Amino acid sequence: MSFEISNAISFFKSEHILIEECRGIETIDLNLEYILVRADVELVAQAFSQLKQMDFWVHDAYNREIELHTESTLIFQFRGRPWSLIYKPYIPRAQFYLKEEDALRISESLDTATIYYTASDTCASLQYHLYRAGVSIEKFAFEEEVSTELKSQLRQIEASEIENGYSFAMDFIREQDAYIPALIVVTSLPPDQTGILRIGGLMPEELARMDYLAKR
Amino acid sequence: MPDGVLPLVVTRIGGGGTYADSVFYEAKAVRSTFLPPSYSKYQILGFIDALKNSDAKVAGEIPAIIFMTTSDISRISLKTRFAATRDGVGVWHAIACRVIVPPVGANNLQLGEAIVTNPEVYVLGLTIPGPIGPGSRGTINP
């Protein structure tokens, strides 16, 4: 029986805003992790599959039936947006996770900008790291009411001058012309099953492309 | 966006009911805070506001939010409890704790019993709250 992936992952965005106009961080109310890459899906999927030795690649997979594997990754780009996103759906017993180093390696290999982004509503923390051509440009780490750290080659600002870490990060993502979407994990995906790759609330016309990568 | 949303079940002599989306669960593993209304860009206040307009509240019942936290949060902010009481919302708190003798094969952590932190909202509403939340009694490591 085919698993309904759209019941497991949902996409949420503000109403009345077209996807092409979305910038910044959609919400801080979720636990999320992405690598953003300023390149098209094809190049990003190629670089990521080489980096992680992934041997199963479904091109243009949205709305198509796919085999789910434990080590799965979605690479997607919204219509009219310059960044592609790397996202690991929640699958029990998965062995690898996205890391800052992955963002560094992809930035290096594609000679482009990447952003490693992670935020946890549960831990009230947020972190991003911008790389350009394999060089660290700005790193920000924030834990609400505990700590704020910033290392930047872009600007002269002390972490102690940052009044609100969430707003600071939102402004930064917006300034990069990037968008952190809200993907809500309702339940885990079952490995070794098939399913139509669809995300609840995400219209096919909002995507430029979504690829599925996995290690078998 | 709370981490969990459940219906509120009310049992009453000769009546009662089930009210959709009227109990929120929120997990927090944070330090140096008691979760005031302003926490996480006013996320907590947003939850109370949403519950104020929930099906249970509209029907005159008492919706609730249950904070499931690590032991760094030893109590819930007075401001949060005050705002919730003002809006007729119950605030409960459950702390992750150690299971003294875990079942074979299980790990040794569990969620402790949820305790109501603003009982006055139930007293004023002439309601006796039943056990709520997934936790049971346990021990917090020092």
Give the gist of this structure.
Chain A has helices at residues 41-52, 100-110, 165-175; strands at 3-4, 9-12, 24-25, 32-37, 56-58, 65-67, 71-78, 84-87, 113-120, 125-132, 135-143, 147-152, 179-180, 182-185, 194-196, 207-215.
Care to describe what's here?
The complex is a heterodimer of chains A (216) and B (142). In chain A, 16% of the residues lie in helices and 38% in strands. Chain A is an alpha+beta fold. In chain A, strands 5-16-7-8-4-9-10-11-12 form a nine-stranded antiparallel beta sheet, sandwiched between helices. In chain A, strands 1-15-6 form a three-stranded mixed beta sheet, with no helix packed on it. The radius of gyration of chain A is 17 Å and the shape is globular. By secondary structure, chain B is α/β, with parallel strands linked by helices. Chain B contains four helices and six strands; from the N terminus they run E-E-H-H-E-H-E-E-E-H. Chain B has helices spanning 39-52, 55-58, 78-86, 120-124, and strands at 4-12, 15-28, 64-69, 90-98, 109-111, 115-116. In chain B, strands 1, 2, 3, 4, 5 and 6 form a six-stranded mixed beta sheet that branches. In chain B, strand 1 and strand 2 (15-28) form a beta hairpin. The model of chain B has no long low-confidence stretch (mean pLDDT 88). At the A-B interface, loops of A face helix 1 of B.
Number of strands of chain A: 16
**Per DSSP, what share of the residues of chain B sits in E-state strands of 2 or more residues?**
25-35%
Estimate the helix proportion of chain B, in percent: 10-25%
Structural class of chain A: alpha+beta
Shape of chain B: globular
Question: What is the overall number of helices of chain A?
Answer: 3
Number of strands of chain B: 6
The termini of chain A sit apart by 20 Å
Low-pLDDT residue spans of chain A: none
Pairing-aware structural class of the strands and helices of chain B?
alpha/beta
Radius of gyration of chain A: 17 Å
